Amino acid sequence: METRVAVIGIIVENANSVEELNGLLHDYSEYIIGRMGIPYRERGINVISVAIDAPQDVISALSGKIGRLSGIAAKTAYSNYTSKE
Predict the structure, then answer these.
(1) At what angle do helices 56-67 and 18-27 cross, to 10 degrees?
(2) CA distance readout (Å), 38 to 2, 9, 11, 42, 46
């Protein structure tokens, strides 16, 4: 199956949705290469980046589910790199 490398950029404005976000990331943990979270205390938000290597439909599904959480925005940047597993 062909996979792509991507980064999902996440902005968390509603701390009440963090538990659901972490649950989603756990559900897709087999595809996650790494993640980095930065609290921006002055603005009261968190900025998270998630590096992922997965089939495109899996990446799209995760990004879409994250984006539907209340007070959370997500955008995905795809690499041109693909691999066949």
Answers:
(1) 170
(2) 31, 11, 10, 12, 6
